[in-house]
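Researcher: I'm comparing several assemblies side by side, and this is the next one on my list. It has 662 residues spread over two chains. Same procedure as the others: predict the full complex and return the structure.
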Amino acid sequence: MSEGPLLAARAVSRRFGDRVALHPVDLEVRPGEVLALVGPNGAGKSTLLAVLAGALAPSGGRVEVRAGTAVGWAPQRPAHYGRLSARENLEFFARVEKVPDPEQAAARLLDELGLADDRPSAVLSVGNRQRLNLAIALLGDPDVLLLDEPTAALDPGEQRRLWERAERRAEGLSAVVFATQRLEELSRIADRVAVLVDGALVFDGSLAEHEAMPVESLFA
Amino acid sequence: MRPVWLMLRKDLRVLRRSPVLLAVLVGYPIVIALLVGLVAGYANAKPRVALVDEDGLPAVVTVGAEQFHVDRTIRRVSRDVTLVRLSPDEAARELRNGKIVASVTVPAGFTADLRGMVQSPRLELRTTQGGLAPRVTQQVQALVYSLNQQLQEAYIKANLRYVDLIRHGGGGSFLGRNFDVLGLDGTARLLDQLPPEPRLKRIKSFVRTAGLALDQTDDALRATANPIRLVRAPDRGRTWLLSAQIQGYALGLTLSFLALLLAAATLASERDENVIGRLVRGPVSLWQLVWGKVVLAGAVGGLLGLAITLAFGAIAEVGNVEGGEPWGRLPLVLAGVLLAGASLGALGALVGALARDTRTASLVALLLALPMVFLGLVPSEVVPPAGWVSDAFPFAHAVRLFASALYDASPWRTISVQAAWLAGLGLACTALARAAARRLLL
């Protein structure tokens, strides 16, 4: 595998009508790194992740994905069908994403995330729905995992297990990009931090460099 | 096509998990169809018409030599209206408040004119203003036509009695005066008693010819009184409930609500479930997402349409209805139902894409379906603009296609034209829905 980025945003911007959600952003995601996207509400973190995931088309610039790289995405609000069970959701999205052997892939993730529940996913607890959201993102064993505020609805135990899973993935050549407003999570797992404010990328550096910055200036 | 098939399977599974929603989707249009049927039935019901008797009609009126029992005659000729006897004031009040739709006044002197046979007696008609007035006028005209027919018979008989007097002689009366007539027969007898001479021969020839001519008076009078007679054939057509038009309306109406609501709600629900981003970043394009809903509407509409057609067919068979159900046309009807369902589904998908959330989409679909259906029920010959607007929606074309597919002897031309309309409208709505579906990603 080459040393180039797995995923890169090249002058990516996004507008919603007259509103600019994302000014041109350049960002690379390299193998084996855990990149934290931080910034206040409305900074453009979710928009950038959705554009990187291919769920939103950029208004300008382009997203480059290294050939053969699979990208998984867990949006901030769980994205699955409430009237289908966790298993049915996983099997459906596995088929849509052409994952080989959808039943087996779904069974493995159900077991791994402790989601063996045949009830409609709408009646699951908030935490379990978030886990199902993550499980769908993990279908097909992606090389880059994009997580949008993944711990927002999880209890401390679930948060710990999530970060352990993310660390295991990053130990290989996979990469994890996660958006968060919880600065305490950065030191737990992040290698690199990118800061977005008002849709503009104002910082992209190591965790140590970020820790040297006055935090208040970012969230003012 | 694989993503469309996957979406369809998923939607059918979700639908199966929502029995209440499914029951409402199927039951609601059927209830609406029944209500429309009731309204149509009310439109065919007998209107209430007042009979205002200012002449003091006697129980029995004699016209010529015929006796008419007034109440019995009124009952016989007023099959299409319910006649109620009211005073002039009551009739005026009820006409104002809409309790009656018309009043027929028998003015003073009516019976005298009728008996006199010199001038036509008059009836006065007053109707309410608005939609029912033309129909009530027609029904009262039909009532007067029936009365005239009865009276014509009496007049013809009276006239024939006078002809008979001229022909054979005897006693009679006119306007209260009695008279005695020699008649052609008596004239011939007197002429036979006179001595022969050439002028007498000519008179005898005239009397004979006049007698022969007067013998034809009966048929001639009847023919000139009724140049055209309407005779009701003994065999009857299909019952109103099972007519081609009603079956077409029932299918079209049910499909309209079902397909429109289903496609609109399921497309909008993809956004409510927040899954559109997940779908479009994979191999499901926005085109396929919209097509999935169009196919879903066509498939579910097809199943319901088949059930309705079978139900009509069963009723026709069990009731031994004249003409029976055209079972051989079932494949044609089913193809039409699938096409109409898909076309209406495309319109629903457009609503779902524009409305963006399930509740709004369902409400808008319902609000759109009602006027679309009612516009389609307005005869375009009566209100041409309603026909033009209705042609811009699939409902009217679906109804014409179903009615033609069911009972037209040569349905292909109508089916081709209406299928082209449905396909064109469906494709246009699908393209617009695809364009609007970008909003679902925001």
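Model: For your comparison table: The CA atoms of residues 107 and 177 of chain A lie 25 Å apart.
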